[in-house]
Specification:
Elements: H1 2-7, E1 11-16, E2 21-24, E3 30-33, E4 37-41, E5 46-51, H2 54-60, H3 62-73, E6 80-84, H4 91-105, H5 109-119, E7 126-127, H6 128-135, H7 141-150, E8 154-156, E9 166-169, H8 175-181
Parallel strand pairs: 5-6
Antiparallel strand pairs: 1-4, 2-3, 4-5, 7-9, 8-9
Helix pairs in contact: 4-7, 5-7
Length: 182
């Protein structure tokens, strides 16, 4: 989940396991709850995230806990409280997020600019592997392509990002959607 948050360009800061929040149950007894993440977005909004397997959401009564915390703390701790399960944290999203974060760390502005100029000539979708090979950037091609996806200049087909995934210029209609529009 941390990589998914870090790969989100709207996220300013991620705090893993922030300090526990104290809340009272229906009998007035005090309890502590530690969120998995506290996220601050560039907009200033703060979101507290509890990560649970879907099968544990109801038995753990985490919805009730989050409701009590929201009622008792208002927006002192966070503006929103949410639960994330494997429905939101797919293997593909986790893979793509790790790849994006890793390629950000390897970013080379000259290589990215070269790839952006090369990709500007795209007419429709092309496999990432083909784009990488035709660019002449060799080992620098894939990180440059991933950085262009991250920056919103290229769109990737749904699913796991790899050499076989199709990319196209942002806003360029796919052949399928262009055919439907005709």
């Amino acid at each position: 989940m941390a990589y998914i948050l870090l790969a989100d360009n709207s996220v300013e800061d991620v705090w893993e396991q922030p300090p526990a929040v104290i809340y009272a149950d229906s009998k007035g007894e005090k309890h502590k709850h530690t969120f998995d993440f506290l996220v601050r977005f560039k907009s200033g909004e703060r979101v507290a995230i509890a990560v649970k397997p879907y099968s544990r959401v109801e038995p753990s009564k985490v919805r009730t806990v989050l409701k009590r915390i929201r009622q008792q703390t208002g927006s002192k701790f966070a503006d929103k409280f949410c639960i994330c399960t494997e429905a939101e944290i797919t293997r593909e999203l986790a893979h793509n997020s790790r790849l994006i974060v890793r390629c950000r760390r390897m970013s080379d502005e000259l290589q990215i600019a070269h790839m952006a100029k090369h990709a500007a000539n795209l007419n429709g979708a092309v496999a990432i592997g083909e784009l990488a090979y035709s660019s002449g950037l060799r080992d620098h091609a894939l990180p440059a392509i991933i950085n262009l996806i991250d920056r919103g200049l290229l769109e990737v087909s749904d699913g796991r990002i790899d050499h076989f995934s199709s990319v196209r210029l942002k806003g360029q209609a796919s052949a399928r959607s262009a055919h439907r529009a005709a």
